[in-house]
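Objective 1b: paired records.
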Amino acid sequence: MMALHVVSDAVIVLAYFTILVALFRFVRSRGDDLPSRGLFVLFGAFILLYGFLHGMPVWTAWQPDHWLAGWAKAATAVVSLATAAVLVPTLPKAMALTSPHDLERLQAQLVEKDEILRAGTFAAARFLRTADWKETAPAVLQRLGEATGVNRAYIFSRAYRSDGSGGLVSQAQWCSEGVGPRDEESGLLTLLHHGSGGGPWVSSMLSGEGISGAVDTLPQEERAILEAEGVRSIAVAPIMVDGKWWGVLGFDDCDRGRGWNHEMSALLTAADVLGAAIERHARATRIAQQDRELRETRKLEAVGRLAGGVAHDINNLLSVVLGNVALALEHGVDEDAAALLVPVMAEVGRSRRLIEQLLTFARRQDLQREVLDLSSVVRDMGELLATLVGESVELFIEADGSDTWVDGDRSQIEQVVSNLALNARDAMSGGGRLDVIVTAEPAPSGGWPWAPVDLPDGAWVRLEIGDTGEGIPSELIESIFDPFFTTKAMGLGTGLGLSTVHGVVAQAGGYIVVESKAGVGSTFHVLFPAAEPDAVTTSPPVSPERVAVLRPRPTQKKILLVEDNVAVRTVVERILVRAGHTVRATENPDAAMATWKENDWVADLILTDMVMPGTDVNTFIRRVREHWPGVEVIGMSGHHDPSGARAGLADPREAVDRFLPKPFEPDELVAVVDGRGGATDAEAAE
């Protein structure tokens, strides 16, 4: 029996010392992670002493030593009490140490968060590197969706319907296998536009916080909406552009309900980066649009300068033709010759009108408001319209009604008709039919179905231009009159045609409304306020009798003519001489001043061209006023704006007494010289 005690105590001592060595190695390797190293020192001492106590019976079995055993037990008791005193307060810290299971779970979360951060970095790099965010959005959504382990990721922008209610527009979506995309009319629309004042989702979006969480933790109304769509967890981050709520970046999990605690910050960052990319793209688009507009404006300015120069030269030519034909008729040609020459004068008049249209297109023509018969204007444009629309389009003009008088500028109204006809032609690339109809009628009591609801009562003249083209998409109807808006390919349109039409009609106090149906065609209704026909002034037709004004007048004048164009100078001199005036013709102001001083020859009137190479007409007129203050000065020019050729100078027409635009017929020239026509200086400058 004694041997059993000795062997057992020896084994216990060996076990205690083995535990002590293991504890020592553990403390040495994990000491920094332990809540209290002193506790383990006391615990080691406790084990050492207990091992010693169990070793004492092995010794005392042959050599009793009660004194040593007593002190060993006393030391063990003291160390045991100290160990217990330290262990009790340290126990909560020891229990708080992370378990291996918790470590594995935290490690998985760190890996998932790291993947989300990597996906966010990928999104930022893609959005910032790509010019158009829409091109890279699908790849970014896929990366974010796979990183978060969801079934669906999407980008929706906010929109407003025609009735003013809110809507969503899908910009990009990614879905895992077996899951369909989110519909624009889904429950998300209800949540993001809850009530007129906005619901809790709207408030979270506006505050930049977003919404996230398991669906079963949401309020009953919201939970019912999302559960009906099979969504178990959702995260929606607001996308802010220029400080305004633009849309949402959303994620749907249809397999598990989770809280999104560690993912939401990364998703909010991704939404912010996306908002910055959208803002940058919008800014770049605006800059590019402004650059295109600037190029188009400069192009139009160049066309305007070209048109002004061409008009000047052609008007000089037409003046020569008109003058010489009139002189030929004055000489008394036979009937056959007269029959040939009179149409020449009529065609020159038509050419004059074409030049006015060219100047109108180039924005270089003054407004000349008058009361016009709109039916007559449209009929006169028949040949021009037929040329504009081409042979593949059937043109039908119905403009035979009466009481179609309107107050406006003829060239601008012609521009309205021409632009609408050109737009119709472009919409009928494969051919079709163009109807141009002019009618006069009071607005019906209930109004026309297509007319504005606030159309004033009264008489209106309606210009209707309809085509059988491809029609205008309903979403573009409200934008077609915007400056520089065009659906044509780059280089095929400036986007100014319809905006010009709208401006002309509005300036005349009218309205323009478009009806269109895709695949059927478009009809533009243009309403002009009706004018009183008794305010109309008409010009008599060209006839041989009109040149009778060239015969000598009772009052003859001494006229100093200043004109650099030889042909124009010659025909003007002949017309004035035939009318009984004395004329001295010179080619420039210097020659005119020399002629004036020669032999004390004093003119009653100076007739001068307003634009001559190397000449400052303002200075010339000022010198004339200084030396001969009583002389009358009449200006003439083929330029619409004489000052355009001399940048920085005031309009020379302001310095003359009367102004006569080229080309002019002989009777117009003589009437101005006689004081019976021509615009005054104030009128010319308007």
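Objective 1b, second protein:
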Amino acid sequence: MLYAFCNQFVSLTFEGLDSGRAHAHRVTLTSVLFRLFKLVIINWQHMELSMIPRSVIQFMAVVVLLTSWLAMPGTAAGSQDRVALVIGNGKYQHISQLDNPINDARDMAAKLETLGFTVLKGLDLDQEAMEGLIGDFTDRLRGKKSTGLFFYAGHGVQIEGENYLIPVDANIRAAGQVRYKAVPAGFVLASMEEDRTKNSAINVIILDACRDNPFRSFRSTGSGLAPLHAKGGSFIAFATGPGDKAADGSGRNGTFTKHFLSNVDTPGQDINGLFDKVRRGVFRESNGEQRPWTSNSLLQSFVFATDGNSRESAQDSPPAIEQKYAMSKVPDPAPAPPSPRSEVTSLMPVCRTLLESNRLTRPKSLSTRNPRNALDCFNEVARRDPGNRDAVLGLVKIEKRYAQLAKKALSRQQTSKAKSYIQRIRQINPESSALDALEEQLEKSAQSSRVAASASRREHPTSASHTPKQNRRPSNPRGNKWREPVTGMEFVKVKAGCLDMGKEACVSAFWLGKYEIKQSEWTHVMGSNPSQFKQADRPVENISWKEVQQFISKLNARGNGLFRLPTETEWEYAAKAGTRTERYWGTDVNDACQYANVHDETSRRKNAWADWTHHKCNDGYANTAPVGKFKPNAFGLYDMLGNVFEWTCSLYAKYGTSECITRESGVNDNAYIVYRGGSWYNYPSYVNAAYRGKLDAGLSSYYLGARLLRQVR
């Protein structure tokens, strides 16, 4: 009875705390109180109060005061704050309007308030308002052991594998402008995770934004949204699978949000169980056309509704934060002055001067504070003030000026100059509408030059054959092959050359693995096989970047050459093999099954969980395939796309550089390393030579392997 009394007393004390932590505290304090009171009661008849040690009396007083304080409303020690940001955009000014997001946001905010969240809410926000509200939200989370939830309903698009949330004022005419006029979803997640993954904080992101691309002026590089993978301590939910589309809904709410709202307040229900119910409900209502998708890396369980955190719904009146940011609201009589933009204001005259003096992309700037060309200047303005109209117009003017210069050079048969101008257009805007026509004209001009050179050689057979460097396709003559004597790994000699990565990037000659590292080769060196799909001639996977460095160190110790991973520039150069398309077989993504092991009809049929967009062809493999089963590229390299992603030695933050990071460089476990090439379970937009993925150096996955480079002596 005494123990029950102590347990009941402590249970009341910790009522409302996170269940796991409350239980641990409750057990400890109950045990202490039980032993203490038992000691006093047993000896009560044999001692006077004065005989009780002062330290015991003081300790009991502290316990009573502490537990009384803990039991006070709103002061539970160690309890996690819950903060939510809810945004609904529906009344778009330049694209199709949506009926449900405003209702979704209002209902979501009201529901979360009943579940103990402090809710920041914004409706029909422009870009500045969205970014300001996100900043307020993440400032409240930074460094705290709290639960942060971000919900967005509205238009969203993916460009080159990056997801963007569209403000209501977005007037976007080209895909290249999206990054300046929309909000990257990855930015929100990164801001929420900053300084929080180490202290067991919880981040939840819910996106009901997987609708059709609303912009008629351009096509996004993939339908729906791209996967957004959670790191430690995060949970991400999409209204439908990556690459698919979600219904806006015919009633008050979108289909996905409706099922979330109807299931979220079940007491004691874990977040995984909640979204299982939501997934089944949406799947049934949409007749199998929509299936919500989640990515979970939470390090602890999370429950939305406990017995102690539900309360009556607050009135649906917009809080002060919504009044501050909602476009549809009447401004206060004395609005706060806008945030100063003195840096941008001082930069714009410099940008215009550089543009007018034709200092477009040269000379390169040494500092962002003192830009020396118009491109760097306008880009710096856009970085400091995303969506700045003058910066976007400045970039458009630079693009048009280079298009004019390219046309002029082509009319004079100056193919070298024309190619340089075209490369700069691609650097400014890879989606430029002028590129196709200019590149077609450049190819015709280059072909005319080759015909003329051939005729000249026939007339003058003793003259040396020469083709201008910029028109030579990198060659890989037969006989340039080498086999590592211990493991049997085969390498192909790749000659020096250049490629366009937004700017010209050149590489020296190197040897590259003809195939991805096989499981038999890995086992021979490392003595174990970590792969999930075990078969000796399949690529090794489930290997971290750091484990690959250990493999390389052991291989280098044998003295048969100096091995390392390729930089992403070397990798992309080798993958494209002199072609100009994103895939070395051409432009049709569904030709992939002849050249690569991808997420296809077989994978879709046998992997029910991988229900996203697939290649409309059949390569015969549901997961990894033995190396070399598909056609090679022009350099004689197999599986450069598909099968498994391949680690590089490049840091994600340093795109297009020649810097190679090795084990000796002291890379942290959480450093982002680039991987390339797509894999057996990826949908089409990931399987191309330009896609960049990133992962912590110490993490591994069953879709990630490696291919070695041997340096030329």
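The first helix runs from residue 2 to 13. The longest strand covers residues 82-88.
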